[in-house]
Amino acid sequence: MERKIKAGLRVVPVVLFVLLLYVFLHESGHTIVALSAGSKITEFELISLKPHMNFEGGNYDLFSTLWLHANGSLLPLFVSYIVAFTYRKEIQNFFYHAFCFLFCVTTTLSFLVWVVLPLMYMNGYMDNGEDVCKCADLFNMYYDPWIISVVALLLVGLGALLIFWKGIPRQFFARVKKLLKKKNVT
Predict the structure, then answer these.
(1) d(Cα 83, Cα 103) in Å, to the nearest integer?
(2) Residue 168: C-alpha distances to residues 17, 79, 106 (Å)
(3) 53 DSSP 8-state letter
(4) What does the pLDDT read at residue 1?
(5) What are phi and psi of 142, to 5 degrees?
(6) Among 126, 152, 155, 129, which residue's Cα sits nearest to residue 140?
(7) Where are the alpha helices (DSSP H) in the chain?
């Protein structure tokens, strides 16, 4: 039992790092679009109950506004694609495998919101604070929001294929199993 606890404790810093990195990339995604539209960033908050970024000004059209809402989730997803694509199973570091697994899986699964919420939006659900709903509301002016769900599902599928093609889950769980079999987990 002690080995399981020690092994579990080795994953805690990785989880915290992955969450902080995800939040940083999410807010950076919004920030990149805001800066490209000529906005001035007035606030960039990562460590709080509600991480956010605020900006003033800028020149936004429909496309850049859609991009502003979507890039918060797209940037971490695309970074996870890069992490998965460059993944090397021969590296022996547990932190590396735990990070690659948790980061790629977290960002891919978090993108499922983009599959579900546009469908809920079409049935009357609207959360004005949610990037997906803001995007669906703007998108609805010209196109059906289900297109967002289809594209998001394709991106999730691509992420899942890449994760499994590179063997990231298999390598991570093999290392966890090996860690649990060690007599002295340090």
Answers:
(1) 8
(2) 18, 15, 13
(3) E
(4) 60
(5) -125, -25
(6) 126
(7) 2-36, 62-85, 94-110, 113-122, 131-139, 146-165, 168-181
Q: What is the pLDDT of residue 10?
A: 81
- Residue 66's alpha-carbon distances to 27, 60, 73, 99, in angstroms, are 15, 9, 12, 30
Reported as half-sphere exposure (CB side, CA atoms, 13 A), residue 66 has a value of 13
CA distance linking residue 44 with residue 21, whole number of Å = 14
Other C-beta atoms lying within 10 Å of the C-beta of residue 59: 9
Rounded Cα–Cα distance for residues 186 and 171 (Å):
20
Q: Report how far residue 136's alpha carbon sits from residue 139's, in angstroms, rounded to the nearest whole number.
A: 5
CB 163 within 8 Å of CB 84: yes
- d(Cα 115, Cα 145) in Å, to the nearest integer? 10
As given in the structure block, the two tokens for residue 170 are 């298999």
First-to-final CA distance of the chain: 14
pLDDT digits (tens, 9 = 90+) for 21-36: 999 999 999 999 999 9
Rounded CA-CA distance 105/100 in Å is: 8
